[in-house]
Specification:
The two termini are 81 Å apart. By secondary structure, this protein is mainly α. Helix 1 runs antiparallel to helix 4, helix 4 runs parallel beside helix 7 and helix 34 runs parallel beside helix 37. The chain contains 47 helices and three strands. The chain has a three-stranded antiparallel β-sheet with strand order 1-3-2. Among the domains are: 226 residues, no CATH class; 193 residues, no CATH class; 129 residues, Leucine-rich Repeat Variant (Alpha Horseshoe), CATH 1.25.10. Strand 2 and strand 3 form a beta hairpin.
């Protein structure tokens, strides 16, 4: 039966051979083709025996078809009627077969096999049958529905194809009554066909928009035809039922198209060029609002607009959707109800897990949330912010519950942090509501960040991004207050509730749980102090990430200004605290408050110094002081501090070296700033604040050269560089750091110092600049004069650096040693001639207690050994074995000297490179003897140096392999000190890493012994670090053997040239 009906549909819709001549128009040809198809169909239904069942079913449908017109002269409508009769016949037959199929009992389970497919229902059509039915439906819609839509309702046929424009022109002469009747008939029949699921798919996948447009016109168009109120009400009910049943994103997409109208078409159809009529736009707006207010309505709107996009301009679509969601529709009952429903659905968009759509959905949610917080703060606060931040709020307000050990679950905390990161950081729209809302919970986020830094956690990066975003966008005053709270300088607000702490979750997250009380007071105090120290370290790590921000510098200067203010009142406070407290006239409460006040002041001072110390140690100067304005503020704090100390001294010479160095640094920074070739007026304007402290120093400081220097600097700043400093103003400033004063020395010694001062003191930055300028202006008269001048200048500089390397001031001495090291690396001629002097100078400074000095000396000795190994290495090896050979060396620190010399030899070994096989043999023997030294530190140092050298020897290590293996295996098995065993295992690791694929060739005789030693450490050694080193060595050995056994294939082509 299905095949017969499909065959009849084929006859009706199949184009016949055209019998028209060249003078026949397209419209006439179409009418002749339609009439011919109808006649052929009716003839075959009556004459063809194979179509008898189709004819009988058609006649049964025709009996019930009250809408069928037998006497119509409209060929197009007659064709539509025949298509509908056949489609209804097909639907009636499929419905009967499907009902029978559902009533038939399922086959027994015994007769079914696991691989047997379930039986198909009888309403399933093949692809060719679906194509035929789809063609008939397209004719029905094109001839019986679209031409009768009012102007602006739906997409007209003229916009779809040239054939549609022709059909539209042919049926435009229909009367309003006939058009309404035909539109109602076609729509009703299509909906009747859609009652069957298999046909509903064919109807709605291609013609849903046309059906919705027809129902809107039939039910809501202002009355222009003689349709009854029942028909109109029925059309409205059918429309609402259809909109509920169909997939909502498709419905929303069709309504949006319907609301937009047909758009411009051109001069050929000017009546349809205008947009949708007002009643349709209002109706579509109301229907869209209803779709939006439904459960998951926001998600349906997003899917309708974004699905099927190319992604090129999707961000514009996301922004448009966000604006739509932000605006409350007029059809809504109240704004409060609307935003309550929409905000909850916006948050659901943030939690979509589908990777294909999550990014776009989250973009919409982020933009909508930001817009709501900026434009609708009154509604966004309770319905958006509170749900998002509720886990963090609960961390602040949590109360102890005996039955509940976990206050905030892991999934809640993870979802909360991710939502904040998406809205605030990804949205990146800093506004006052967003910043204020985040500021309330930021202490909890910082505490959470500190916890995640202690272990592996998936919330570390989001927490850091949130904190950095706030630090980058908040106002300076709010930032400084927050940083003071986080650093412990102010009382922390909105902290995690007492009795609770963060603990690791089972899925890599964090949960808030009850804290187990600590019974030991010492342990509780230790936990508190380490926690505060860790928070400061985490805070400095955050500030270090703000490389392009002024926040670290502003916070540092703010603390420095507070320290300066504290210095001004420190004397009064210390004097007050040192006085004996008269408690005779005080109550116990007053006495306790007084004591607590003293403790609080001292604690705050210590906390301030601690924060400053950690910032200076952890942050680079380019992060703290990245602008000239900040440098000027820093100088201002230093000069103010110097003035305060000067006022307290009352004209007496200041003996505190720290204060002298601070003042010298401030003066040097001012001079360095002024030595720049071009300074902007803004810099001079900022430096004007330095005029007052410089004036105080120039008038009250007891040192004359400080007075002159301050006066000269003040003159340069006041004249904006018009006044130039003279080099004599700086000549005495360098000697100010010398301990002996000129008036306390004998006259002979004083005259020697005064004579040496102009030659030995390095020039100031300004004087160097002036000299360079003079050298460019005054050209030498001959090449000989030029060479002589350069030689005298370099000789004078070399002697100056030698003297500076003996200066008692630590920074001066270290800088001179660094400069001499640079001269060694550049093979300066003076250095070549004075190798012995430079060597002794470095060796003397190697014994210095300050790390800045002896590390500079170590670098210098390593450079000497690199460039002049034959003469220098022998002396270094001797000192490493026996201690310092200098008479001025401190014998009590011989061990420290030998360890520092070991560091020198390690750096020299690294610098040897390919020369290690030639230069390294003396070092190997010394290091092997060092492994038997009585001190464990020397043994460990010798092994460390041995490992660094051996991994660079390659094949030259072969003759020494047996001796080296015996030494290492003996130490691993017999050494009592864990530190030495670690070093021995580490030597094997470096050895295998250095030899790499040459291991089996160089160490073929001892490789098994080394392997057994490593396995022995892995099984028997009690030291965890030694075991870890053994594991690393075995991994290196495993890589070597794998590359040997399973070599990587080489894709090579061999070309053989035949003779």
């Amino acid at each position: 039966m299905i095949a017969e009906i499909i065959s009849a549909l084929n006859v009706l819709t199949k184009p016949l051979a055209s019998g028209c001549n060249a003078q026949t128009s397209k419209e006439e040809a179409l009418l002749l083709a339609l009439r011919g198809n109808i006649d052929v169909l009716l003839e075959q239904l009556h004459s063809n025996n194979s179509l008898q069942e189709a004819r009988r079913l058609r006649e049964d449908v025709l009996v019930d078809a009250s809408w069928y017109l037998n006497d119509t002269e409209d060929v197009i409508w007659s064709f539509v009627q025949e298509c509908l009769l056949l489609l209804l016949s097909l639907a009636r037959h499929l419905s009967a077969e499907l009902k029978l199929f559902q009533q038939t009992p399922a086959p027994s389970a015994k007769l079914r096999t696991p691989e047997m497919a379930p039986p198909l229902p009888p309403d399933v059509l093949s692809f060719s049958q679906q194509k035929t039915v789809g063609t008939a439906l397209q004719f029905v819609v094109s001839f019986g529905l679209c031409p009768f839509l009012a102007p602006g309702v739906g997409v007209p046929l003229g916009h779809r194809s040239a054939f549609g424009a022709m059909v539209e022109k042919m049926v435009s002469g229909q009367t309003a009554v006939g058009a309404a009747h035909q539109l109602l008939t076609t729509t009703t029949m299509l909906l009747r066909l859609a009652e069957l699921s298999s046909l509903a798919t064919l109807v709605f996948t291609r013609h849903l928009g046309d059906v919705i447009a027809a129902l809107c016109q039939l039910g809501y168009q202002p009355q222009k035809s003689k349709m009854t109120s029942k028909e109109r009400r029925n059309s409205r009910d059918v429309l609402q039922s259809l909109l509920v049943k169909v997939y909502q994103p498709v419905v929303i997409k069709e309504l949006l198209i319907l609301q937009g109208g047909s758009g411009p078409l051109g001069s050929s159809s000017s009546s349809r060029s205008r947009g949708a009529p007002g009643w349709l736009r209002r109706l579509c707006g109301q229907l869209l609002s209803e779709r939006l207010m439904q459960p998951n309505g926001v998600q349906a709107v997003v899917r309708a607009i974004l699905e099927g996009g190319t992604g090129g301009s999707d961000w514009k679509k996301c922004d448009s959707i966000a604006k739509i969601l932000t605006a409350c529709p007029q059809q809504s009952e109240s704004a409060d109800t609307y935003y309550k429903q929409v905000c909850s659905q916006i948050l659901e968009l943030l939690h979509i897990k589908d990777k294909l759509t999550a990014q776009q959905f989250q973009c919409v949610a982020t933009r909508a949330a930001v817009n709501l917080l900026q434009e609708k703060t009154r509604f966004a606060q309770p319905y958006l912010l509170v749900p998002v931040l509720s886990p963090l709020y609960h961390c602040i307000t949590a109360t102890a519950d005996v039955d509940c050990q976990v206050a905030v679950e892991e999934w809640e905390m993870t979802q909360c942090v991710e939502d904040i990161n998406k809205i605030w950081v990804v949205g990146n729209s800093p506004s006052s509501p967003l910043l204020r809302a985040l500021e309330e919970v930021l202490p909890v986020v910082f505490t959470l960040f500190c916890f995640t830094k202690q272990n592996v956690c998936n919330l570390r990066a989001p927490c850091q991004d949130i904190l950095l975003w706030y630090l980058s966008h908040a106002e300076t005053s709010a930032l400084l207050s927050l940083l003071r709270q986080l650093s412990g300088l102010q009382d922390l607000k909105n902290e995690v509730a007492t009795g609770f702490h963060f603990s690791p979750g089972s899925n890599g997250g964090v949960q808030l749980s009850c804290r187990v009380g600590c019974s030991d007071e010492d342990d509780a105090l230790y936990e508190k102090l380490t926690g505060e120290q860790w928070r400061l370290e985490c805070l400095t790590n955050l500030l270090a990430e703000l490389k392009d921000s002024d926040v670290p510098g502003d916070f540092f200067l703010d603390l420095l200004q507070e320290l300066t203010s504290w210095t001004a009142v420190a004397g009064v406070e210390e004097e007050k605290d040192g006085q004996h407290l008269d408690i005779s006239s005080m109550t116990l409460l007053e006495v306790e408050q007084e004591q607590q006040g003293r403790v609080a002041r001292q604690g705050h001072t210590l906390a301030l110094l601690q924060v400053l110390a950690i910032m200076v140690e952890s942050l680079q100067h380019t992060v703290i002081l990245r602008k000239n304005i900040q440098v000027i503020d820093f100088i201002d704090s230093l000069l103010q501090r110097a003035c305060i100390v000067l006022d307290k001294a009352n004209g007496v010479l200041i003996e505190n070296p720290i204060e002298n160095q601070t003042l010298s640094m401030a003066m040097g920074l001012v001079a360095t700033l002024l030595s720049e070739p071009q300074l902007s007026p803004d810099v001079y304007s900022s430096m004007s604040r330095l005029l007052r402290p410089l004036a105080t120093l120039s008038q009250q400081h007891p040192e004359v050269f400080i007075q002159e220097l301050a006066s000269n600097l003040r003159a340069v700043i006041a004249t904006h560089g018009a006044y130039h400093l003279t080099s004599s103003a700086f000549s005495g400033s360098k000697d100010s750091n010398l301990p002996p004063k000129s008036d306390t020395l004998p006259s002979k010694k004083r005259s020697e110092i005064e004579t040496k001062t102009p030659q030995t003191c390095p020039p100031s930055p300004l004087s160097v600049t002036n000299k360079l300028k003079q050298s460019h202006i005054k050209e030498p008269t001959s090449s000989e004069d030029s060479v002589a001048g350069e030689t005298s200048h370099s000789s004078q500089a070399f002697s100056d650096w030698l003297l500076e390397a003996c200066h008692p001031d630590v920074p001066t001495r270290a800088f001179a040693l660094r400069k001499l090291t640079q001269m060694v690396q550049s093979r300066d001629q003076e250095i070549v001639q004075a190798q012995e002097k430079v060597l002794i100078l470095f060796l003397e400074n190697l014994d210095h207690e300050d790390s800045f000095v002896y590390l500079s000396a170590i670098q210098g000795l390593a450079s000497l050994a690199d460039f002049y190994p034959e003469r220098i290495l022998e002396r270094l090896l001797k000192d490493f074995q026996q201690g310092s050979s200098l008479s001025t060396s401190n014998k009590d620190h011989s061990l420290e000297f030998r360890l520092k010399m070991g560091e020198v030899l390690m750096r020299a070994s690294r610098a040897m490179g390919e020369l290690a096989p030639n230069l390294g043999r003396p070092l190997i023997s010394v290091f092997l003897r060092g492994t038997r030294d009585s001190d464990q530190s020397v043994r460990a140092s010798s092994l460390s140096n041995l490992g660094e050298l051996c991994q660079r020897l390659d094949y030259a290590l072969g003759p020494l392999a047996q001796e080296l293996s015996s030494c290492l295996t003996a130490l691993i098995r017999t050494e009592k000190e864990a530190e030495v065993r670690r070093a021995a295992v580490h030597v094997i690791t470096l050895l295998l890493r250095g030899l790499s694929d040459k291991t089996t060739q160089v160490l073929s005789d001892v490789l098994l012994d080394l392997y057994r030693a490593l396995k022995w450490v892995l099984r028997s050694d009690s030291d965890e670090v030694a075991v870890l080193h053994a594991q690393l060595a075995l991994e290196e050995l495993d890589d070597v053997m794998r590359s040997l056994i399973f070599p990587k294939p080489k894709l090579e082509k061999k070309i053989v040239v035949l003779p």
